[in-house]
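1st attempt posting a full record on here, be nice pls
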Amino acid sequence: MMKVTTPLIVLLLGLAACTSVELREPARSAEAEMAVQLVRNAERRNDELSRADLVKALGVFEAVDDRSGRWSALHALAAWHMAQRDRTTALAFAQQAFDLASQLDSKASLYSSALQLGQLSGNDNLFREALSYAQPGLGKAVLHVLLKEYEAAKAELATHRASAGEAERYGSEEAFVLYHLGKYEGDRHLVLEALDNYRLAGDAYGVTDSLFVVARLEESPDVALEFAKRALLAARQTGDENRIAAISHWVESKGSE
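the predicted structure (as tokens):
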């Protein structure tokens, strides 16, 4: 069975939206403000240039003792390396970000760092720590999924949907929760809803995983095979060899039946 990797977008959750306080930004020089923009722009990309921008920004923040800025750059560097499947380097940056977040007066930073480091280290205690900083709704739903507390996740998702505006209803965070609930309950309709959200978010990994789970849940062999072939096309675009191999093997086994 294919191992499902937590989508990167969970690591980049909107901090203020998921925590009880907003991230407070210090007064900054013009150079530091430019470094902030480098981090924000780099988080939207996934190439070598974006990593170089993050390293440059980190240097600026270190030079002026901007701890909040340092945290944002370290956190983004951890996410960048996780996207490259470089878990060792990602873990090192995530640990630095977490240690720094513990020194800052920011529940938002603590929430995001505990979530990120928990994903990379597999330490459930960090997810439980993040729960203490998360607002009711989507932030808690994501954490309950990571803790495999699916009933609690379902309740928090309902809270989110009851209060969220239209623009907040479609994204990788909600897709992540829908995907795992659907997979756990064997509900293809929830996974299809997650698929739509992953498409809108441009999350190829989420699209791949959702298509493949729908294939495995589908009762019609022909329809199942079609979904699996679509999953394989998406997987090839991610370059994830584990996903490609797992889906290819499944397609071949079904094709020979």
